[in-house]
Amino acid sequence: METLLAILTVFTQPQLLMLVGVGTFAGIYIGAIPGLSVTMAVSILISFTFSWEVLPAISLMVGIYMGGVYGGSRTAILLNIPGAPSAIATAMDGYPMAQKGAAGEAIGVTTVMSFFGGLIGILVLALAAPFVSEFALTFQPRDYMLLAVLGILLVGSLSSGSLVKGIFAGAFGIAIGAVGRDPLTFAERFTFDFKIMEGGISFIAVMIGMFGVSEALQQLQNVNMKSVRQKIDRIVPSFGTIRKYLPLSLQTSSIGVIIGALPGTGGDIAALMAYDHAKRVTKEPDVPFGEGAMEGLVAPETANNAAVGGAFIPMMTLGIPGDAVTAIMIGALFIHGLNPGPMLMIDQPDMFWFIVGALLTANVFMLIFGLTGIRIFTKIVEMPRSIIIPLILLLSIVGAYAVNNSITDVYWMLGFGVFGYFMRHYGYPLGPVILGVILSRLLDDNWRRAIISEREDLGRFFEGIVTSPLSLVLFVSVIMIFVSQTPLWTAMKNRLFGRATT
Amino acid sequence: MSRKLMGAVVALGLSATVATAQDYPAKEIQGIIQWGAGGSTDTVMRSVTPHAEDALGGTVVMQNMTGAVGAIALNYVVDAEADGYTLLMGAENPMLYKIMGLGDEDYSAFTPINLLARGTPLLVANVDAPFDDYAGMLAYIAENPGELKMGATGPGGLPSVITAMMNTVEGELDVIAVPYDGDGPALTALQGGAIDVMPAVLGAAIEGVRAGNMKPLLVFDTEPNATLPDVQIATDANANYATYLPWGPFFGVFVKNGTPDDVVEALTAAYATAAENEEFVSLMDGRGFTMMNISGDEATEFLTKWQQGTAWLLDDAGLTQASPEEFGIARPGE
């Protein structure tokens, strides 16, 4: 019981409370700027907080992490540029809402749902961390591969319009992700002997270009059009709205926690999978997906914030990072003289409960800061296009440069921006490109690991799938989702069920 | 706080300002870390540098520049001015760039400021593996050829060198090498049972061993390790390991050749003081690293010996793209 009181440490020391608050506030804005990532902010903080005590340092980092994951949604909704990869799905329905004058409502719902998702993630961390981490460890390379295949099938729900064009875009994304030295063998792939290609193409640069620059180019076409007036009367969603989306948000939060807890997958994949899930289970949305469906905001935003709590699960129980940010935090704990590992929770349970407490506090701060100041933010969308277009371009360039401090990334970003513009023009969806880049490594590396482990024998590979319950479930899901997307299935359904009902 | 953070962000971006250097350091020094945030190299550099800053009376802004096994960072520092305002904070990897076909430069283009510490390789196994020691593993491999899954991190990484060493000393071992992105992900996979054994740096595996989540089989050193005194050492298992040991990855701070002597002296003094800092030493002990804190000729000698031994070991194992001979790397003892 005494250790449980550590959860309240944050409140007993005003300094810690303030640091969590400051961190969350800064995190929201760092998260909102494309290119400035939470990972970067936390790694800068390591040197910055070096001489501090461990608790204040962790408080600040936890705040930044929580705020940053949420902040990515801001620019996604207002400008159609996801501030972070985990907000890509948010842009798909959030931006159309802003275009209809409902930016305030979109941010309001996003904030409340991020809070809700964050809460679920923290609760799972607090109550079931050992079980979840044990489950996450059972994922073998073949399971990660199947998970990636499951992700690739999202192409269907991310492409409005032609599926063929969506598949092309997805495949293109996978190819972009494969450029550079292969991390497993160091062989060069698609580098054409150019030195700058060796390091691969920065995925953030592709994302910023495809969404930001191509959006700016698109808007140039109607630069004189009046911008949409924003309604700002309904910011905090009504209780009825929240209750309506409660079942969905519980499901998508669960997706977020699990994907977040898996080492090797994080909030970006969680958000996209949740979006796909929402699209699948919502039979009759009030507004179609892609045109401003509320479900399209609820799903990714609950999932990516739930993934925060999820990422801490393997970190706290095993010393294994759940994502890039927790990897840096493990480094920070080392520097502060703690030894994060399986013994941390046994030797120093106070630390675990302190982090849970700090996360809870950051989550509340996120709700407060998120719901205030929306009025000022929505003004961004009301600005004349002649101001907003240069602003988008400026943000994109600064963001792309900031990722690696490399001007090459800016060129990539601009190139993909122009290319993305033409893709839009010819009806190719951009979402699947990013999906492909995100999943490329996961799919490629794990397929190779899986098949190498089985001595490159396909028979043994499938035997492994059939004999492992987890792999079998994933494999069957892949088949089911794949079949349900083909015309064959619709035809069969009509023949089987159609006749019975008529 | 956020203003300071913004300051740091801006400083990262605008590091190349014009300087009229009277005394060194007259402006911020840029520290380029070869590996990602949170990794071993990152942790070591971020722990030692603040102490060096105190001794130097300047600021070192550290930045992670990853990619191509650290070659991107190395090339960046090679292209910078040799004025002591750009430091390379790296690990052992560049010593193998030439023979692995990863680049045209290695540490011979640099002056070592300080080789801080070296790691000890440790062979660990999954808790459920059907053997408890090194001899048991060899017997298992002999009975079940091509079944044991051994973690790897790509050619030139620690596991590839240790595996080459084992193959040279014990004769070809028929195992499956499953490649991972680094020792972190591979050790995670080991605990999940995706691989059976893994050669890793002691510091990365120690917490898992302490918690009983993995079994230590063999310490690749000539003397028992203080952190794991009961684990068998390689030279006891097979005396032929003595040819290659002690061997291990190391961490060092470097400047480009041609940097003014007084600048090199100032930096060397600062890092030598920092490496003696109690906090830093206890951190390194806790992670199972062996402190070296060497510079000047001693460091150069260490680098030469390290490169000769490792390069020829990998070349004999057929893992290299080009023979060490082409780059004038002599066989050890020649």
From TrEMBL, chain A:
The chain crosses the membrane at residues 16-36, 42-65, 107-132, 144-176, 196-217, 320-339, 351-374, 386-403, 423-443, 464-483. Keywords: Membrane, Transmembrane, Transmembrane helix. It holds the Pfam family TctA. InterPro entries: DUF112_TM (IPR002823). Signal peptide: none annotated. Coiled coil: none annotated. PANTHER family: TRICARBOXYLIC TRANSPORT PROTEIN. This is Tripartite tricarboxylate transporter TctA family protein. The lineage of its organism: Bacteria, Pseudomonadati, Pseudomonadota, Alphaproteobacteria, Rhodobacterales.
From TrEMBL, chain B:
The keyword GTP-binding does not apply. This is Tripartite tricarboxylate transporter family receptor. PANTHER family: BLR1237 PROTEIN (PTHR42928:SF5), TRICARBOXYLATE-BINDING PROTEIN (PTHR42928). Residues 1-21 form the signal peptide. The lineage of its organism: Bacteria, Pseudomonadati, Pseudomonadota, Alphaproteobacteria, Rhodobacterales. Keywords: Receptor, Signal. It comes from Flavimaricola marinus. Belongs to the UPF0065 (bug) family. Transmembrane segments: none annotated. CDD domains: PBP2_Bug_TTT.
